[in-house]
Specification:
With 251 residues, this protein is of the alpha+beta class. It contains 7 helices and 6 strands, in the order ααααββαβαβββα. α3 packs antiparallel against α4. The N and C termini lie far apart (77 Å).
Length: 251
């Protein structure tokens, strides 16, 4: 971008100042200014992207924390709310990568031989993410290996990747990141995020702390156990007013 701006500013000045002793200095100044303008524009753009990603995470955490709290005190709606939390985390992960990114979550089978799709965002539905992958089948081995790995796999451009024949790409997608989901040392599954255009996923995005936080939360929510009804929890069919509710005090 900086080179293009430099050329576009510098070239038109050559004919006008070729015979002028100040010409070379003027051209040099234009080239320098164009380069600096492009540098600061790019730097500002990158900072805006980083700020936008932080906003995406902050906006997701507050409502999700409330839902997780309700999961733990209302057993009757535990599974429904768990699905809602996981879906929102999957959506947030996609938003952190790119506005048009498709994201899907797969759980590993008990024998670590299969991956089954459990949640997607809207873009993943449109790109028709495959529902199931089996180790040994075409594309399946690569994804299961990614799920069992430590760091996962980044594919900036499928056309340039040496493993392109082994990697599953959804309809029309060109870039992808495959992130293993773990709880402690236990492998839970795989978060798959894909983009329509190459280059939308930063080269160092596997190390992004915001993305790591979302993936860690997915693993934690997966491991949460449904609480047993007891004091302080809601029981289906029972409506118990709070202790400080005047309407609940016998007359």
């Amino acid at each position: 971008m900086a080179i293009l701006s430099t050329v576009s500013v510098g070239l038109p000045t050559v004919p006008a100042f070729a015979a002028n002793s100040l010409g070379p200095y003027y051209i040099g100044t234009c080239v320098f200014c164009a380069f600096m303008a492009s540098f600061f524009t790019l730097n500002t753009s990158q900072k805006k992207v980083e700020a936008d990603r932080s906003v995406v995470l902050e906006a997701a955490l507050e409502p999700l924390s409330c839902l997780v709290g309700k999961m733990l005190v209302e057993p009757a709606e535990f599974e429904e709310r768990r699905s809602t939390v996981l879906k929102r985390l999957v959506e947030t992960a996609g938003e952190l990568v790119h506005a048009d990114a498709a994201s899907g979550l797969y759980w590993l089978s008990a024998n670590n031989a299969e991956l089954r799709l459990v949640s997607v965002n809207e873009h993943a539905s449109q790109q028709h993410f495959q529902d199931e992958f089996v180790r040994g089948a075409e594309k399946g081995s690569f994804l299961v290996e990614a799920a069992l790995s430590v760091a996962g796999r980044l594919v900036p451009d499928i056309r340039k990747d040496p493993d392109r024949d082994r990697i599953y790409m959804a309809d029309d997608c060109r870039g992808a990141i495959f992130i293993p989901v773990r709880t402690g040392s236990t492998q839970q599954g795989l978060l798959m995020i894909q983009t329509l255009k190459p280059g939308h996923i930063p080269a160092d995005f596997q190390k992004d702390k915001r993305l790591k936080s979302v993936v860690n939360l997915i693993g934690v929510v997966k491991e949460l156990k449904k609480p047993s009804p007891g004091p302080g929890t809601s029981v289906p069919g029972q409506s118990k007013p709070p202790a400080d509710d005047p309407e609940g005090v016998p007359s």
